[in-house]
Amino acid sequence: MNQDVRLAAPYRADALEALVARFGSPLLVIDCNIIRRQYHALARALPGVDLHFALKPLPERTVVQVLQREGSWFDLATNGEVDLVRDAGIPASRCVHTHPIKRDSDIRHALEYGVTTFVVDNPDEIAKFVPYRERVRLLLRVAFSSREAIVDLSRKFGCEPEAALDLVALASRSGIRVTGYSFHVGSQVARPDMYVEAIETCADFIGAAAARGLGPLDTLDIGGGFAIDYLKPAPAIDGFCRPIRAALTRLPQGVRVIAEPGRFICGPAGIALSTVMGRSMRDGRWWYYLDDGIYGTFSGQLYDHSRFPIEPVRAGDRPRLPCVLSGPTCDSGDVIAEDLPMPELAIGELMIARQVGAYTSATATDFNFFPRARVRFVNVEGSGA
Question: pTM here?
């Protein structure tokens, strides 16, 4: 852990060049001051909501420990994530396990660590918890599809709303406690309407469950999906959450609300530094070959439908012409951007991509034996938001 590295924003070109001289290229730099800033911005926008950082976009011990000091809880989905938070010294009481589909070995692994809250969305998953019914609390995930989301996370998981009460009753007959509902309206959600609809529906479900003698249902997990800037600006988080805050007032007194932000907290914290390793004039435009690409840090463009702003570290006021930015591998599909206005670049020139803290290193590979970018943390010891 490189706790001694400090980097003040906005980042100066000479400071970035010094990082690459020290650690090599390609390099993924995670600014922990921005991690803290984003966490507290969302906490202010959703007061009273327990924020559980979702590890999957940036599963790094340093990030977990930084957020622990800020008061975060944690959202886990796999054995590897369980191991990461355990080894980082996180109490299991500050974690929930939210993957709706699990093997028995996954359940046992999380229970051995001490996690007791799990998510389910169908009868077969409920049945898996019968042997552990004295030890667990379940949240029932309900599907609320959002066509406006970049990724509709209700396509793969979540029961139909019409089935929600019957599934709670099924669990109850099996002696298993369902203590609340869960939903995730999608990723990079542009408007809060779907959150509001889901919260209001779940508030009705909580009341209906009580009327049937089920419960008490005392928890609502509103998921994640809060958008960040990429090539287009995202809504300001406080204004985005205003109608969500209003909808939460419909919940019965005493219901605990949790959320699972991932990208919002870590996405803006990352910059990717790469180097032009070659260039070629093809069909009247420059192709620039970087030492990082689609199989590396820019994997988010494949798996997460993200497009990252990228430019030379020393862009200056040079004239720009459309070019192609390519990754280093032999795959002709390893193209980062086409027809991107860019000044003429020299071999060895340093490039910077921004907003790359989420779903980049987590999905990178060593395809073609090109090593993925090294990850370095800056401003690990900070004063907070």
Answer: 0.94
205 plus 321 within the same structural domain: no
Cβ contacts of residue 178 below 8 Å, gap of 6+? 137, 138, 139, 140, 167, 168, 171, 172, 214, 215, 217
Domain limit, last residue, from 238, 261, 284: 261
Instruction: Compute how many other C-beta atoms are within 10 angstroms of the C-beta atom of residue 17.
Output: 14
Q: Which of 282, 265, 233, 267 is nearest to 359 (CA)?
A: 267
On average, the pLDDT of the chain sits at 94
Q: How many CB atoms lie within 10 A of CB 282?
A: 9
CA distances from 39 to 237, 286, 316 (A): 11, 40, 33
Name the packing angle between helices 237-248 and 32-45 (round to 10°): 40
* pLDDT digits 0-9 by tens, 60-107: 999 999 999 999 999 999 999 999 999 999 999 999 999 999 999 999
Task: Report d(CA 360, CA 338) in Å as an integer.
Answer: 20
In a domain, 52, yes or no: no
Structural domains in the chain (count): 2
- Domain boundary residue, one of 197, 229, 261: 261
